[in-house]
Amino acid sequence: MGCDTLVALGTVTADGVTLFAKNSDRPPRECQRLVQLPRRRHPAGSDLRCQYLELPQVAETAALLGSQPYWLWGFEHGVNEHRVAIGNEMVFTREPPGRTGLLEPISTGPTTAPS
Predict the structure, then answer these.
(1) Is 77 within the bounds of a domain?
(2) Which listed residue, 12, 40, 59, 101, has the most CB atoms within 10 A of its CB?
(3) Which of 62, 73, 66, 58 is nearest to 38 (CA)?
(4) Is residue 5 part of a domain?
(5) Range of the structural domain that residue 77 is part of
(6) Distance between CA atoms of 89 and 6, rounded to whole angstroms?
(7) Residue from 3, 50, 72, 103 carrying the catalytic annotation
């Protein structure tokens, strides 16, 4: 399984609007909530706790809207106030996996919901 993402820039669409589309190939009954977060300022030296990592937090984050699986830190896809869109994808590679990623302790395959 994998995901599909499509982008059509405004220079090639009939009305000049950029289009972003993504399917997430998740189980059909998996709940994904829509999350809307405001622009935020963060204290200097603060950290951001991800699923398995803690990273230094930036000074300010943009307002955003994203689709989040109920069991996961982060989003399948979303867009921020600057119209920057994201969509996560499974990447197939011959490189050895790292010890820890944002979504899995060891990158051994697709992330699946806990049972």
Answers:
(1) yes
(2) 101
(3) 62
(4) no
(5) 28-87
(6) 12
(7) 3
Scored b (16 or more CB within 10 A) or e, 53-76 reads eeeebeeebeebebbbbeebeebb
- Going by C-alpha positions, the residue among 75, 109, 77, 72 that lies closest to residue 90 is 109
Does residue 46 belong to any structural domain of this protein? yes
Per-residue pLDDT of the chain (115 residues; tens, 9 = 90+): 567 888 999 999 999 999 999 887 788 888 889 999 999 999 999 999 888 888 999 999 999 999 998 888 888 899 999 999 998 877 777 877 777 666 665 544 444 554 4
Distance CA(96)–CA(82), nearest Å, equals: 35
Taken in order 89, 90, 96, 99, the sign of the CA dihedral is positive
Among residues 55, 49, 86, 53, the alpha carbon closest in space to that of 68 is found at 86
